[in-house]
Amino acid sequence: MHQTCTQIAEEMTLIGEDDEPPSQHGLNIPSLIVPNLLPFRYNSLIQNSRVQTVRHKTQSTTKTKIFRQTYYPEINDKEWNDWHWQISHRIRTFDRLNQILKLSYNEYHALVNSGVQLPLSITPYYTSLLSVDDPDQALRRSVVPTINEFVKMPCESDDPLGEEHQSPVPGLVHRYPDRVLFLLLDFCSTYCRYCTRSRVVGHGAINAGKDRLNKAIEYIRQTPSIRDVLLSGGDPLTLSDEKLEWVLFRLRQIPHVEIIRIGTKVTTVLPQRITPKLVRMLKKYHPLWMSLHFTHPDECTPETHRACSMLADAGIPLGSQTVLLKGMNDSVETMTELMHELMKMRVRPYYMYQCDPISGSSHFRTSVQKGLEIIKGMRGFTTGYAVPTYVVDAPGGGGKIPLMPDYVEAHTHEKLILNNYENKCFSYPDPLISGEKAVLQ
């Protein structure tokens, strides 16, 4: 007797409740998905997913090779390139980090005191990219805590985007009419010091248990206006393949869910996570998109290139999300170089975020004017594909508000006066019709 898709889904179970590190064992869910029981459009997708994945050879920078020889001489390539090994050997303590980096005063006192809200966690791979003796290096500043995190400004908040007030069920944020943010877990392999969700990330507040996930999925099922689901966290790709597929399979059973997106930073901090097995599984659930978190061009290594190539070869559109950070990537030159590197990896620059006013983040935030200067310095001087949309995520849950430099000089009764990227004046015939307001108004 044949089972229905619903019966098969009900029999699928999550492999344990904890996700740190993810389980290496579990049900082989692909074997449970019988093609002739699925809707036709996914039938063909699953069959097409059997096409052999292109092999991508793993390479490393000289810096990473020297780091491995110094701190992990006994670890072979197979272990180093195993994402489970990377997670289980994260740098999580003062003692271990102090063995590797020459800690500054600000770093030392942040680590020996317990006042920081966000835990310390850095994969060995990403640690290999950090400067040993320069505490102002962009990558190091992004993951090593400093005493600046103890300073909370009046304008800052633990939940600046008001996500807690827009959460109909635990771990689900419904801010926009047609899409939801689905937080699968609160674990990341590496914690960014400017994280918007530092109030929950790394504290065990959001688990990947079946009951909680089912409640969120049921809310999506019962809300027909939702056509787009963004999976985030924490980092959803730190789940096992089996757990992630359990979620994707159930979402694909909901007729009104058209698009599934995954927000992740593993391509940057844990590129070993992108495996042929993972890619084969993801290909079954198109249309599937990914938003990748990048901060600085130094993150664009051979390992990252390989990970992005595997995802792109699987037909997954890749977009980037970059937070504008003071003293780290807040120049036209650095931001342009990052976007060019992303384009070479087939990652389309998507958003450049103004840093959210999260508690203890004042040392990371630039002025909004600085962000506008960067966009103006890129527009026209490089391809439009490489220019991200600059946005402020409005505090209090107002959503993303795009910001653009002002290129309109004046609007007369006969024409629009515009400035181009070289600050030269041009006019465009655009007579004002009676009752219309000028563009500048």
TrEMBL record:
It comes from the Bacteria. Residues 174-386 form the Radical SAM core domain. It catalyses: L-lysine = (3S)-3,6-diaminohexanoate. Its cofactor is pyridoxal 5'-phosphate; [4Fe-4S] cluster. PROSITE patterns: RADICAL_SAM (PS51918). Keywords: 4Fe-4S, Iron, Iron-sulfur, Isomerase, Metal-binding, Pyridoxal phosphate, S-adenosyl-L-methionine. Belongs to the radical SAM superfamily. KamA family. The modification N6-(pyridoxal phosphate)lysine is found at residue 400. It is an enzyme of class 5 (isomerase). This is L-lysine 2,3-aminomutase. NCBIfam families: KamA family radical SAM protein. PANTHER family: L-LYSINE 2,3-AMINOMUTASE, LYSINE 2,3-AMINOMUTASE-RELATED. [4Fe-4S] cluster binds at residues 188, 192, 195. InterPro entries: Aldolase_TIM, LAM_C_dom, Lys_aminomutase/Glu_NH3_mut, Lysine_aminomutase, rSAM, rSAM_sf. Pfam families: LAM_C, Radical_SAM. Its EC number is 5.4.3.2. The keyword Isomerase applies. One of its GO terms (molecular function) is L-lysine 2,3-aminomutase activity.
